[in-house]
Write the structure tokens for this entry.
Amino acid sequence: MIAGSRSKKGWLLGTCALAYSKSIENMELGHNISHGQWDWMNDPEIHSSTWEWDMVGHSAQWRYSHNYRHHVFSNVLGMDEDIGYRLLRVTPDQPWRPWYLVTPLRNLLLAATFEWGIALHGLHSERLRLDSSNSVAVEKRKFFGKATRQLAKDYVVLPALSTSRWRRTLAANVAANTLRNLWVYVNIICGHVPGGAETFDPAVVQDETPGEWYLRQMLGTANFEVSPLLARSGGHLCYQIEHHLFPDLPSIRLPQISVRVRELCEKFDLPYNSASLPRQLFRTQRIIHGLAIPDWLSSAGRRR
């Protein structure tokens, strides 16, 4: 195992490779397979109903909170719980609360432990969906069972296989998981929070036409520009607009259809929110931290 190498360069190379592979597994595979993008192949190894990803969260719990609540009710206040993940204030439409003053710490903690945020978010959605305590108890057991197995694999079994170099392997796994978490956080936050990404009142979903649903997906999302190598490691979610328009379309097609989507936006004078990754990341952090202080002291909402 390269991550257990005695040399510092070998350890660094192995850790970076491990972080990249974990990002691929989490985003290009886990996220996209769970959306059913490859179900048409009828291959049980990459089918949304059988895939279990390499992170603490239970994929079945995530599929309900993400595929249904987030994608169907995208950016609808009170219906899409991905808006701020109940931790961050990302729109002026969320009432300010005193605990938002510690947003810098909460934001950093969420980014570094994003897999736990996703896992707990999925469990929370299941608790809201289910109407019996027995069903909730079953989901809790699934959650704790998956988390226990994942922690044991990453931090006990794999380091033990490195025998005398277990400390280096343990450190590599911790570092790789943290890097993966940070990169997933960047992909998700830059696709939904940058200036110009809108939120909606629950009234909009009443009698909403298919055309209005597609328009809401476009207005509530944003793209960012990265190299093909980084795009693949993020599951091609740098094309978040296209992903929300066609969530079950195989991710490798998103770069192709983005050209057509941009042309249609220009033709019908619709916004196509896209910028470089540094630009979008800066805008997200400006909004998140600007909205952490009381409205009468902040102008972050007006800058959106």
Summary: The mean pLDDT is 92.
